[in-house]
Amino acid sequence: MRQPRILIFSGSVRAGSHNSKLAALVGKHLALADAEVTRISLKDYPMPIYDGDLEAQDGVPQNARKLKRLMQESDGIFIACPEYNAGITPLLKNTIDWVSRIKDPGEEPMAAFRSPLFAIGAASPGAFGGMRGLIGVRTILEVGLGANVLPQMIVVARAAQGFDSKGDLTDERAAGQLETLVRSLLRQTRFQMSL
């Protein structure tokens, strides 16, 4: 059996983003566990702000189609989700909105969200570690799009001190969450692949 294909990205493209560090760390741990990891930056998939009139006039952006294809080729997807004002980032929400609009012939609606297994995490300078934003992301993925999201999450609070110079976690609780998330994501994707 082939190794699970895991797509990883962050909902932030800011230089020095804590969530980009988290995405890199999750990718490193998944690769060490023999997953086939593809890490992308949403900076490489620019899209206009979603607007129904724009969609009717110009169709769905090619970058949304490229991202949808990557998602559908993946067995699992990890999203590092920054928290902006206790919610989801505009970049991540816009990306999800555009990809969700694509329905190719013979597909069910929101097909890119139906087959991969999702895992989410956050890193934030605050004491909650992005937990409030993760609630919104989980709701969008599960309730809005019918995605299967692992119950296990990783939350890195006080993220400015949360990573050492090598990019590893300094907090034991967060490190334990990372191990649990990686193990669960690989176990569940391998199970789905065996069906």
Automatic annotation (TrEMBL):
Gene3D superfamilies: 3.40.50.360
Annotated ranges, domain NADPH-dependent FMN reductase-like: 4-157
InterPro entries referenced in this protein's UniProt entry, alphabetically: Flavoprotein-like_sf, FMN_Rdtase-like_dom, NAD(P)H-dep_reductase
GO MF annotation: an example: FMN binding
Transmembrane regions: none
Signal sequence range: none
Pfam families (alphabetical): FMN_red (PF03358)
Protein name: NAD(P)H-dependent oxidoreductase
